[in-house]
Amino acid sequence: MSEFTAKYLADYLPSDFTIDTVNLTVELDDHHTRVTNTLAVKKENLEQSQLILDGEHLKLVSAKLNGEQLTSDAFEQTEHQLTIFNVPDEFTLELVTEIDPANNTALEGLYKSGGAFCTQCEAEGFRRITYYLDRPDVMAIFTTKVIADKATYPYLLANGNPVERGELANGKHFVTWHDPFRKPCYLFALVAGDFDLLKDEFVTQSGRSVALEIFVDRGNKHKAVHAMDSLKRSMAWDEQVFGLEYDLDIYMIVAVDFFNMGAMENKGLNVFNSKYVLADKDSATDTDFFNIEAVIAHEYFHNWTGNRVTCRDWFQLSLKEGLTVFRDQQFSADMHSSAVTRIQNVKLLRAQQFAEDAGPMSHPIRPEKVMEMNNFYTLTVYEKGSEVIRMLHTLLGQQGFRQGMDLYFKRFDGMAVTCDDFVDAMADANGKDLSLFKRWYSQSGTPELTVTQQFDAELNKFKLTIVQHTPPSEAQPEKRHLHIPINIELIDPVTQQVTNQLLELTDVQQTWQFDASNQPIVALLGDFSAPVKTHFEQSVEELLSIIELGDNSFCIWDAGQKIMAQEVTFLLANQNAKPSESITRMMAAVMKADYDDEFKALMLTLPSFEELVSGLNKVNPQQLLDAVEQLKLFIAQQFEENLIGLYQTSEQLLQKTDGNTGDHTNDSAEGKQVAARSLANTCLSYLSMLPKYHHIIEQQFTQAKEMTSKLGALQSAVRHAPLEVGDKILSQFEQTWLEDTLVMDKWFSLQANMQVDTIFERLEQLMARDDFALTNPNRARSLIGAFAMQNARYFHDAQGKGYQFLAEQIIAMDKINPQVASRLITPLIQFKAFDEHHSELMVKALELIAAQPELSRDITEKLNAALLQH
Ligand code: B3K
Ligand code: ZN
């Protein structure tokens, strides 16, 4: 497993050559697409005599330098490169290559999704289209001529503005596009197909009109309306908050069914997984609506943070991703409940990023060693990367942060830069020393804060001491201290006064002293001001006081989560015990509190399996699930009256008001409905623990007029109801939605979540269906991914059947689509979190994969890291 080599950040060198212009002519054909690529090349390092271009899976047809055909001794071709010897200082290179898009199942480069041609070039897919200097710091002006059969492919799209179109012989036509902005080739895009087109317009703050176009499969136009509204909201928000305006005359989005990730920010021509574009109320949940808006915003925001200012090299990925995730999170928080949005961000981070950072693939947000770049589009680079930007925002304040952004664009517009460049702009614009802060970019692992307190009643002084420690990792055995912003609230339990303060921890240990006439209660990490774990002994009394008296919604929620997690830990350690008083007191406080419905739903929800695992050590997954179920059942029994009351009130609200599909923002009627549905589904999930309420599952399913309630009923059914109930409504659901791909993905996921001992036979049967195919990433993830990442009970089967099932699917998938295979392996490599019995079975499954011949670079990198830890 050592045939692949890694690249190191420390080895970065600027390119010996630059490319001024690229002229592409792409003659589309299923198996023989011909690409003519004319490059204007300039030598920057005059010592260098040979030009080495990247290229993979390409058939070279011809090569000309300054119009002269190159003879075979003038160049050399290998599996990954084309080297041209003795090149002059400036020259034109014309390369003709042929590719086979219809057999491209890796979905990188040019491929076919359904009937359409589309591209995915980030990170290193452009080299599968033509030979090029495929690195983000080579920025050129692109002109692209697309040629295809007119009847089959009426729309021919590429980056920039259309400059010419016309008819050709044999029923073909062409369109030429010119992108006036210099860009790296990873932002190149091309699409050809037959679509329905939703058109709109946005007038920018300076008065320019921008055409907005969303291309979707025929028949789906009405499902693009929410995406279009989201796009217009994003454009307005970026002008208001960051003063950033769109720069081309046209902005296009194409939705495709076959896509490895969520979406791609190609300049002027985003390509999206249809899952993040298409929605209407019948077929999409409130979460789908939310996610579509967030992803549309994310890709739009990349136009400045990613495209106008891009990354020097791929180690700097968080420069654009961390920053753009932060921007989309702020946008979502402004459009919806900021408290709920923030808590959802934190839940994702704690459940998944903390696990990644504790596992074998742990890496800093700016990795230093990469074998396969696609393996580094991670929760660490994205979500922790966003937390690092958020900490800067917290340290500098909204206005200081904006000044830093302004300076960043002033200095670097049109350039390919580094994370250091970004932090320097923030530091310089604010006169703030951020040198210690930069360690967040180079150090991996989740820091842990140990907090102790001391109150002197005589002197009326309160002392808070915080010690930081980051556990060592394989790659970084010695961790250093970081600059950590810590928002705290001090609650005076007598006067009930709340004061808040931002502490800056800049040493291993620091103590702060406050004047206080009564011993205050500390609410730590307001708004989750740093991506850390905390060890802070607080009594149930104190935690309840935070819930009842605190100001910060995150701290209120977190205090509740802490009580719940402590309860689970207690039940885990005392197998025959009953849940304690504290959970009853906490739940009673939550039930009577005057929260909005969505926040209440979050307060009632137990920490997820993954969130709990990240706070435990070498856990037995089956026992953990038992403890959680025991607690859930206890709450359902103790609070049956409250839960049914809340359920009925929410249902009544939902019957009374009829929402619209348009405005989903916080204060709208629709926003209130979203909240009510979230609360109703949370209550239903508890109530379905009690057999006497199983009938309301079916009732909700039958009566619901939209997808969120239908899916809520189905989820409760597959998790808690007897098999007959689940199977009955699942089959009704299937009959209704058989023709809708995205809804059927949900159906497959529900099946993968079933709590039945026959789950493995079911999975096999589902995979044998005609509408299941490993070549479609969404479908594969909806079954295999959902099973491995959501059905903890059976994934962690005590005999290892779940692990083996996943290993077999990964082996099959790796031959088809290495990127998707590599993402599916995540739950298996995190074996260190579990007890010996389970972790050994997980390692066995990994060894089964490792024994296969010809594994991809993607899977190899992860297996190497994981098995090294064993
Ligand atoms: N920049 C793309 C990710 C492309 C990943 C390629 N493996 C999506 C995004 O973050 O906006
Ligand atoms: Zn992004």
From TrEMBL:
The keyword Protease applies. Pfam families: DUF3458 (PF11940), DUF3458_C (PF17432), Peptidase_M1 (PF01433), Peptidase_M1_N (PF17900). InterPro entries: Aminopeptidase_N-like_N, Aminopeptidase_N-like_N_sf, PepN_Ig-like_sf, Peptidase_M1, Peptidase_M1_dom, Peptidase_M1_pepN, Peptidase_M1_pepN_C, Peptidase_M1_pepN_C_sf. Residues 23-187 form the Aminopeptidase N-like N-terminal domain. Its cofactor is Zn(2+). Its EC number is 3.4.11.2. Residues 541-867 form the Peptidase M1 alanyl aminopeptidase C-terminal domain. GO terms for molecular function: alanyl aminopeptidase activity; metallopeptidase activity; zinc ion binding. Residues 227-440 form the Peptidase M1 membrane alanine aminopeptidase domain. One of its GO terms (biological process) is proteolysis. It is an enzyme of class 3 (hydrolase). Residues 445-535 form the Peptidase M1 alanyl aminopeptidase Ig-like fold domain. SUPFAM superfamilies: Leukotriene A4 hydrolase N-terminal domain, Metalloproteases ('zincins'), catalytic domain. It catalyses: Release of an N-terminal amino acid, Xaa-|-Yaa- from a peptide, amide or arylamide. Xaa is preferably Ala, but may be most amino acids including Pro (slow action). When a terminal hydrophobic residue is followed by a prolyl residue, the two may be released as an intact Xaa-Pro dipeptide. Keywords: Aminopeptidase, Hydrolase, Metal-binding, Metalloprotease, Protease, Zinc. Belongs to the peptidase M1 family. Aminopeptidase N is involved in the degradation of intracellular peptides generated by protein breakdown during normal growth as well as in response to nutrient starvation. NCBIfam families: pepN_proteo. This is Aminopeptidase N.
